[in-house]
Amino acid sequence: MLRLLSASGEYPRWQVLLISLASVALVGVLDHLTGPGVSVAILYLFPIGLAAWSGGMGLGALMALFASAAWLNADQSGGGVFGHGLVPYWNALVRLGLFLIVAYLLTRLRTLLKEEAERGRTDSLTGLLNRRAFAQALDREIERARRYRRPFTAAYIDLDDFKRINDVYGHAVGDAVLKLAGDAIRQHVRATDLAGRLGGDEFAAVFIETEAEPGLRAATDLARALEGGLFGLREPVTFSVGAVTFNEPPADAEAALGAADAVMYTVKRHGKHAVAHQTWPPAQGP
After folding, report:
1. In sequence order, what are the residues at sequence separation of 6 or more whose Cβ sits closer than 8 angstroms to the Cβ of residue 142?
2. pLDDT of res. 6
3. Which active-site residues does the annotation give?
4. Cis geometry, peptide bond prior to residue 281 (ω within 30 degrees of 0)
C-alpha cells in the first residue's frame, strides 16, 4: 500500500479506485460500530489521499464524496442527537469541503514534486536529459544489455568551433544554436533511445539494441539531422561525432561515454566535421 502511495502510475486507476473504495467502506463500518462517542474521522483521509495522490484530483474528489456519504450514514445510524434535521447534512457538506481541499492539496503537491524532479533531470536550455540523468539511464541500459546480451551504440557529439560562435555572435546566439541542436537530436532519436546534453557544446545519444552497421548509420543520420536543423544560420555549424557499438557491455556509463568521447576526438584530430565509429571489444586481427 505504501508503495502504491509513493509511486506514480505503478498500478492501474481501477485498482486505486477499488482499494480506495474498500478503505472508505471499512472506515465507514468502523465509524458506525464505534458510534458518536469515538471519532475515526482522520481515517477517512487515507483513502482520499491515496486516490488523489495516485489517481489525480478526479479520483480524489470521488473518494471525498464517498467518505462524506459514509460519515453521514454513520451519524444517522449511530443514534446521534441533532438540534435540527438538516444539521447532519450541513456537517456532511462541511466535511466534503474539507476532504476536497485535502485532495486538491495532495494533487497539487504531487504535481509540483513531479515537475521539480523533472527539472532536476533535464537540461534547462535544450530539454534533453542532463549529464547526471543521462548517465543514470545509460547505467540502467548497460545492466539490461548485460542481462539480455543485447548490443547498443553510444554516440558522442561535439559542436565544432563553438567557442568562436559565442565570441563572434554572442552567447544569446550560442544558446540558440545549442537549443536547435537539442531539438534536432530529440526529433531524430527513437522514443526508446536516450539523448542528453552532457555540458557546454557536448551531447550524447544511445541507440538501444543497435548493432555496428545500423549504429554507424544512426550516428551518420544524426549528424545530418543536426546539420539540417541548423541550416540557414549566418555561418555553417558542423559536428564531430564519435560512435561506439558495444557488443559486450562496458563497466558503466562513464566507461561508455569515455570510449565514445575518445572516438570523437579522433575526428577532431583529423579535421573535424565527420563521423567515426568503432566496435567494442575491438575486432581481433588474423
Report:
1. 249, 250, 252, 253, 256
2. 40
3. 201
4. yes
pLDDT of residue 40: 82
Q: Which residues contact 179 (CB under 8 A, 6 or more apart)?
A: 125, 126
Q: In which residue ranges of the chain is pLDDT below 50?
A: 1-9, 285-286
User: By the 8 A CB rule, do 152 and 206 touch?
Assistant: yes
Distance from C-alpha of 190 to C-alpha of 43, rounded to nearest angstrom: 46
Q: How far from 204 is each of 163, 225, 261, CA to CA, in Å?
A: 19, 14, 9
Chain position carrying cell 445510524: 77
Q: Which residue has the cell 563553438?
A: 162
Specify the length of the chain in residues.
286
Degrees to nearest 5, angle at CA 228 with 210 and 131: 55
Q: Which three cell numbers mark 49?
A: 489521499
pTM over 0.70: no
